[in-house]
UniProtKB/TrEMBL annotation:
<dbReference type="Pfam" id="PF13360">
    <property type="entry name" value="PQQ_2"/>
</dbReference>
<feature type="domain" description="Pyrrolo-quinoline quinone repeat">
    <location>
        <begin position="151"/>
        <end position="273"/>
    </location>
</feature>
<keyword id="KW-0472">Membrane</keyword>
<feature type="transmembrane region" description="Helical">
    <location>
        <begin position="52"/>
        <end position="71"/>
    </location>
</feature>
<dbReference type="InterPro" id="IPR011047">
    <property type="entry name" value="Quinoprotein_ADH-like_sf"/>
</dbReference>
<protein>
    <submittedName>
        <fullName>PQQ-like beta-propeller repeat protein</fullName>
    </submittedName>
</protein>
<keyword id="KW-0812">Transmembrane</keyword>
<feature type="compositionally biased region" description="Pro residues">
    <location>
        <begin position="1"/>
        <end position="20"/>
    </location>
</feature>
<feature type="compositionally biased region" description="Pro residues">
    <location>
        <begin position="33"/>
        <end position="42"/>
    </location>
</feature>
<dbReference type="InterPro" id="IPR002372">
    <property type="entry name" value="PQQ_rpt_dom"/>
</dbReference>
<feature type="region of interest" description="Disordered">
    <location>
        <begin position="72"/>
        <end position="121"/>
    </location>
</feature>
<feature type="region of interest" description="Disordered">
    <location>
        <begin position="1"/>
        <end position="47"/>
    </location>
</feature>
<keyword id="KW-1133">Transmembrane helix</keyword>
<feature type="compositionally biased region" description="Low complexity">
    <location>
        <begin position="87"/>
        <end position="105"/>
    </location>
</feature>
<dbReference type="InterPro" id="IPR015943">
    <property type="entry name" value="WD40/YVTN_repeat-like_dom_sf"/>
</dbReference>
Amino acid sequence: MPDPQQPWYTPGPPQQPVPGNPYAAEGGAPQGFGPPTPPPPPPRRRFGRGPVVATVVALVLVVVAGGVYAVTDRGRGEPTRPVAKESPGPSGSASPSRTPAAGGPKLSHIPTTEEVGAARKPGEAAAWIADDRADLPKQINKVHDLWIVGDTAVQALHRKVTAYRLSDGAEVWSVTLPSAVCETPANPTPDGKVVVFHNERPDNERGNLCNQMQMIDLKTGKEGWHEKLDEPGDDDTFIVYSAISGDVLSVARGMVVITYRMADGSKLYEVPRENKDKCVPDDVAGGPARLLVSSECMIAVERGKNYGQVRELDPHTGKVLWRYRMKTGWRFGSLISMDPVVFTIYNDKDTASDWRITVLDPKGKHRVTFDARDKGFEECAGTGSGGDIQPCRGASVDKGLIMLGGQNQVGAYDVKTGNFLWGIKDNRLRRLYPLRAEDGKSMRVYEAAGSSSPGRTYLMGPRGAGTETDVVKHPVATARWEYEMSMGRTAYVGGRLVLTPTIVSGDENKKPVREARMLSFAPGSP
């Protein structure tokens, strides 16, 4: 049971406003933010979300205590992530132009796992860091989904799919594709197979279609079948969404969803439109044996009179198992959990800030919808629901708890009632991510690194701040690279935390610190 006196606690003194900085009173941004990385192109809205336009980026730069605040309005797409600046790093580590601190790795290169181990201090976690010297285009390159298969962590970046050993970060295998990866599903098949989508041409010019399907066995790195996406027209394959449900691959693009057999890439069926073609399937989400298809139902010209719906289909036959319609004016946002089905919805008239969380029962009937904005939570920890509907970063469901994270806070809601239970609201400008529930009474939380100090992993229970128990103290030696990943992807397996960035710059001349591909921490020795 939550502590009735203090279910929501704010530790530490409040941050003092900075004269002339209107954002400081609202929390601002972490000190040490440098000039912002050029943002990637905003994700294209799914059909019905309005025309695609160039996002207008408003930047307010205010020098504070030797650092810079960057405030960016980027809509519901990928938020601007922190960029390390060339001032001294953690524990006196220096920029590439200066002499590094004794015992710490140089910042002009990615430190090896051996260097990280040599710099490890008593009580700090064992860590490994993965580097890749493969050439990248001088642009912002997307790091795709993180897969944990057996004893490896696998990621796709540009033309390579690479597996790293979980115990020490050593590269186990890699596959080089003829062109850049443009889409990946959130999860592989139960036996570790996945289909990655890559561009039709090897160049990075406009008009390059995302229509090549390559099956890869993530346990061995062996390539399987390769097929061109079966499609009604080329105009529908610039933006592709995919999901794997057991041994079935589902692909959404434009206003079409088609399923394929994972075994050989042969076509199974097309997901039909509904309501006299007014309800158009637009995205898919998968799991070990379940398939969800979201649709946008365009009943009227006025957006506020339309609505979204979600269906569960039998992956092998396409039979509709249940259908849930959102209220008029509301659309499907992002999937938080497949079992039970928990997802965000958003108001079509205010896609940037008006959102809720909806929970369904096993038969697709409405259980509860609640508003987490009164506690300050942002949808999917601030990443919104642009692009793929799966996963919703910074949110998860485990052991009866809906766990939400984000800037400065993490908290738990009851999955049956939607009632807020307990959480922490912090003023230290850290990003907090829930990793898993612990017997429904507490949760394991990852606190991302700051600009000058490492992160940590801890347990937090219903009594909130001040009762945390540190599980893993992250090493100072990797703090600068951990900070680069503070808005990236996370995976927690067997007591080990794995981090990756979501984007990597290919222009290393503009980066004071080279970006690592993956970082991992564990309580024991690697």
